Write the structure tokens for this entry.
Amino acid sequence: MRHITELPNKIRIVTQEFKDRESVSIGVWVAAGGRYEGKENKGVAHFLEHMAFKGSAQYSCDEIKQLVEGVGGNLNAFTAEEETCYYAKVPANHFKETFDILADISFFPKIAPKDLEKERTVILEEIKMYHDLPQYHVGELLEQLLWPDHPLGQSLAGTSSSVGEMSAAQLKDFKKAYYVPANTVISACGSMKHEELVALVRAKLGKLTGPAGPAFIPARRNQDRPSVRLHHKQTEQMHLALGYLAYETNHKDYYVLALLSIILGGNMSSRLFNEVREKRGLAYSVSSGIKSLHDTGVFMVRAGVDNTKIVGALDLILKVLGQIAAGGVKEDEFSRAQEYYMGQFLLGLEDTMDQMLWMGGGVISNDKVKSMADVIKRIKAVTRSDIKRVAKEILDPRRLNLAIIGPMSEEQQKQLGALAAVD
């Protein structure tokens, strides 16, 4: 059974007990991510996440790793646009000490000067690595087009300049502003008891105080003309990413768009996979996906394409998108998409880690966890006419944003630009 408790200081605790599991997955979530940063401290949320593992008030760097990995568990963290999560999966009998480690590194990191300099070098190398990987870098270029001059359009890792000049004071200021009880969720799933975790959280974090951090800068949700970014680089393969501004997390048509994405590029039965790869051989990989935030979202298509076939591949991708907006979907592909979504959703919640991430992500972003029954009900409520309506709205050529990395000739650049243009 799932339980949610809010402590007097506003920390929320959500659990799902599975008595038959041998593991427990725990997450400490903070509503602090890349969109809460400015140009001068871009990458601070990610930098702070890194520093948490270098040592805390109670645990050294070695102890943090050894106390979790030494019992067969795993420990990690991630920084996203709207949240940061520190998490672990361990045998159930090590649940209490693992929570203590996660809570300590999250809220009481040392941020020692010598560790700061070491980790600065590590992150600068990470930034270089991302820029050297065209399949990753093209996604960053797309985000710059989607949200120009906005934190969402800037790299989560920061820039060489912002990270190179990041100070301990900036890290501490960001932590003080956002690592507060009202911004915090503790989630856990597995062989444990809700009351036990509530008691642990109350003892460890119950005395923390502080108001919720400053609000984020609203992001744009519409555009009236396409944007293109062609980045010339000597690569063995062209990397393409196109995106359309789409729906926020709580939009009434969120699940319609999710099904549309599956139909277009969500699996090997999708239109894009069949048309671009199977029938024409224009790309090795082609897929679609969606990302939703508090106030905006994006529908994306990504592909890795032979250098000589980029124009034909883009032309076909745009035609496939246009066809579904104009003609809708067939009954069989619509039914397959519904079954695929529900099947993937159910399978994804079998593991304690996936369940913990689902619950924690729901509460940190939405202050609630959607039930399995509610999600399935919403998926079944979608109609074929909904798919066509949303496709026509979202896949409007005026909303197109296109980024490509590769060794494009002048003629290819001209042809690609023409394909993306609106008459």
User: Anything to note?
Assistant: The radius of gyration is 23 Å. The chain has a mean pLDDT of 95.
